[in-house]
Structures are given as structure tokens and as C-alpha cells.
Amino acid sequence: MSLQKIGVPLAAIVIFLILWELLVWANGWPNYKMASPSDLGPAFTRYWELFFIYGWQTLWRTVAGLLLAIIFGTGLGMTMGFSRTLRDGLYPLLVGFNAIPKATVVPIIALMFVGAHDFNTVLIAFMISFFPIAVSVSIGLSTLEPEYRDILRSLGASNLTIFWKIALPKTLPEFFGALKIAVTLAFIGTNLMEIVSPHGRGLGALFDSGKTNSDYPLMFAVLIALAVLGIILYYIVVVLEKIFAGWAERSPS
Question: CA-CA 20 to 30 A from 203: which of 133, 141, 168, 248?
């Protein structure tokens, strides 16, 4: 089973790269129009040091924003889950905020905190990724059987105790499902700030450099590097899910 879980994704990636290469070859596209996988190797080799430095800058700021999103989203979800009034009041605000394209928010944040590049990037990563976490926790708590809460409250349990003992285990599958989405959203937020408001840091800055110099292989190599980082974080979440919520996984019949 473990071999299948490793082999199938790798095979899918290889097939994707082969189809990509064939598409470029069949259309006769030059690398200044559409880079192919065979063009990416030289780009990675030539700029490997920049990929390492900028990749780390993008990664740590993405993880920082994601951690803040987990803390804030869980707290907000608890608040909405335990209070119907707050849930009814906050949901429209959250939906409206989430509907605003974050690319339009980036210049505003950059102007509000001029020069605070790391803070701005972490803030955007946080702002774009906390919503699914808050919603998943809120739904999990609001659908908790009222009998459990009544019994625990009659025994003197606080809302925090109810959340820790009953609600948290129940909401873990939904929480990790939302966290998988939040991982990709956090990367989107980080790169939005790095590209829309360039400050010479992160893979977004390297992508912008490739665009300025019409270096299409470099631009596509940055996209692949971002995809790899996203996949790594995604599978870290998968491992954590198996550790803390493996009981919820259904075995095939």
C-alpha cells in the first residue's frame, strides 16, 4: 500500500512532464514562448543558489502565515461554533472578506506597512488562508450533538474543555481537510505579495526577474519550484493527519 501511495503520484508527475514535453515539441514552440521540461534543468543548474535562497525565504514566510492562520482560524471557529449569534453575525463578514481578490489587497497592505516586507508577506499569507480553517472548525462545533455539551456543562466543564475533549477530535478530519486547502492558499498569498509588490525576496522576485529579462525557462522553473514546495507542505499535512486523525480514514472494502 505504501509503495502504491508513493509510486502512483510519481508516475502521474512523470506522465504530466512527458505530455508537457510532447505538447511543446508537437507545436514547435520556442522556449521564449513556452518552456518545456527539458529547458528547466539548465535553469535550475544555472540559478540553483538563487533557488535555494529565495525558496527558503518563500517557504518560511508561507509557513509563518499558515501557523498564524491555524491559530486565528481555530480561535475564530471556536467562537462561531459555540455562539450562534456570533456565527450569524460573522459569517457574512467572512464571506465578504474572502470574496475580495487578494491581489487588490496587496498594494493596500504594501502602502500601509511600507518597508516591512517580511511582515507584509506573512500577513497576506495569513489573510488568504485562515478562512477555510475557521469555517471547518465552526461547522464541526455547530454540528456537535447538544447532549454531549449539556452533560459536560452539567459536570462543570468549560467551553474550552468541551472543545478539547469532544469537539476537537470530532472536527479533526474536517480541520485537516481545510488545512490541505489552506497550504496552497498560503503559497498563493506569499507569491502575490512577492510579485505584485516586489522587494527582491522570495521566489516571486525570481519569477519577476525572469519576466523582466524574458527568461521563460527561469519563469517556468520558478513555477515548478513553487509546486514542489506546495507538494512537500501538503504531504507534511497528510502525515500529521494520519498521526492525529488516522482513525477517520476509511479502509477500502
Answer: 133
